[in-house]
C-alpha cells in the first residue's frame, strides 16, 4: 500500500515506520524535522506543519491510508496542541479524500470498571494526563465523524520498547491485563497490530486495543 505516516520519527511512529517498510509498503513520512529520518528504500520524507491543515491536505492526497502517530508530548499545552493537531489531520484527510485514517490512541480512555476510564482513576500519572485527555477528545471527534473510515488503536497501560513477538490479544473499550494483572504491550507488537489492521480491516469506525 501507499501510506502516509504522520509523526514517523517519534517513539510509536518509528516502530510503525519500521513495521510498514518491512512489509513492503511505500511510506510518505510527515515529520517536523526531516533530518531525523535516514533515507531508506520505500520511504519518502516530507517536512510539514500538521497544524496547517490547508498545506497538509495535498500531502495526503493520492494515498491509500493515513496513519497518525501525532503527539503533543513536548508541548507546554499538551491537550490543546494535540486536539488542534487532530482536528487538522481529520479535516485534511477528508479534504484529500483518503480512504482510511488510522490513529494512535491512548490507554487513558479505556475502561477499568463499568463507566470508569483509566485516566479518571487516582493512580493515573499526572505527567501523562494532558496527553490522555487529548487522545480521549480525539476519539470523541472520530466517533462524531460521519465521513471518514477511521480506526483508533489504544495501547495497554504500559507501552514500552521490547520484542516483536506477534503474540498478543485484542479488545475494544476495556483495558487488557495479563494473568499477573499487568497491562502492557511492546511498541513493536503495537506496530504489528496497527499494520495488521491497515492490511486487513476489522475495526472500521471503531476503537480497539492491544495487550498481552
Elements, N to C (H/E): EHEEHEHEEEHEEEEHE
- As an assembly, this protein is single chain
Average pLDDT works out at 94
Fraction of residues in β-strands: 15-25%
How many helical elements? Answer: 5
Rg, Cα atoms, Å:
16 Å
Major sheet strand order: 3-2-1-4-5-8-12-10
Give the overall form. globular
Helix coverage percent: 25-40%
Global structural class: alpha/beta
Total beta strand runs = 12
End-to-end separation: 28 Å
Which ranges are low-confidence, i.e. pLDDT below 50, for 5 or more consecutive residues? none
Largest pleated sheet:
8 strands, mixed
Fold topology:
Blueprint: E1 2-6, H1 11-22, E2 26-31, E3 43-47, H2 53-60, E4 65-68, H3 78-96, E5 100-104, E6 111-113, E7 116-117, H4 129-143, E8 149-154, E9 158-160, E10 169-171, E11 184-186, H5 187-199, E12 206-211
Parallel strand pairs: 1-2, 1-4, 2-3, 4-5, 5-8, 8-12, 9-11
Antiparallel strand pairs: 6-7, 10-12
Polypeptide structure, described:
- The chain has about 210 residues and is an alpha/beta fold.
- It has five helices and twelve strands.
- The mean pLDDT is about 95.
- The chain starts with a strand and ends with a strand.
Features:
single chain; two-stranded antiparallel sheet; alpha/beta; 212 residues; 5 helices; eight-stranded mixed beta sheet
In summary, what is this structure?
The protein is built from 5 helices and 12 strands. It has helices spanning about 10-20, 55-60, 80-95, 130-145, 185-200, and strands at about 1-5, 25-30, 45, 65-70, 100-105, 110-115, 115, 150-155, 160, 170, 185, 205-210.
Amino acid at each position: 500500500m501507499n501510506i502516509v505516516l504522520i509523526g514517523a520519527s517519534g517513539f510509536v511512529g518509528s516502530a510503525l515506520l519500521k513495521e510498514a517498510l518491512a512489509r513492503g509498503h511505500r511510506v510518505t513520512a510527515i515529520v517536523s524535522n526531516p533530518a531525523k529520518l535516514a533515507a531508506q528504500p520505500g520511504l519518502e520524507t516530507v517536512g510539514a506543519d500538521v497544524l496547517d491543515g490547508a498545506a497538509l491536505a495535498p500531502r495526503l492526497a493520492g494515498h491509500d491510508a493515513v496513519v497518525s502517530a501525532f503527539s503533543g508530548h513536548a508541548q507546554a499545552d499538551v491537550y490543546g496542541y494535540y486536539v488542534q493537531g487532530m482536528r487538522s489531520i481529520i479535516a485534511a484527510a477528508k479534504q484529500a479524500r483518503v480512504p482510511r485514517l488510522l490513529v494512535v490512541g491512548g490507554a487513558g480512555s479505556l475502561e477499568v470498571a463499568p463507566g470508569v476510564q483509566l485516566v479518571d482513576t487516582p493512580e493515573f500519572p499526572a505527567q501523562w494526563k494532558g496527553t490522555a485527555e487529548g487522545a480521549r477528545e480525539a476519539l470523541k471527534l472520530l466517533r462524531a465523524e460521519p465521513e471518514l473510515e477511521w480506526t483508533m488503536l489504544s495501547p495497554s497501560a504500559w507501552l514500552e520498547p521490547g520484542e516483536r513477538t506477534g503474540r498478543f490479544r485484542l479488545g475494544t473499550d476495556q483495558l487488557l491485563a495479563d494473568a499477573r494483572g499487568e497491562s502492557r504491550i511492546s511498541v513493536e507488537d503495537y506496530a504489528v497490530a496497527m499494520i495488521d489492521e491497515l492490511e486487513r480491516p476489522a475495526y472500521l469506525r471503531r476503537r480497539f486495543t492491544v495487550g498481552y
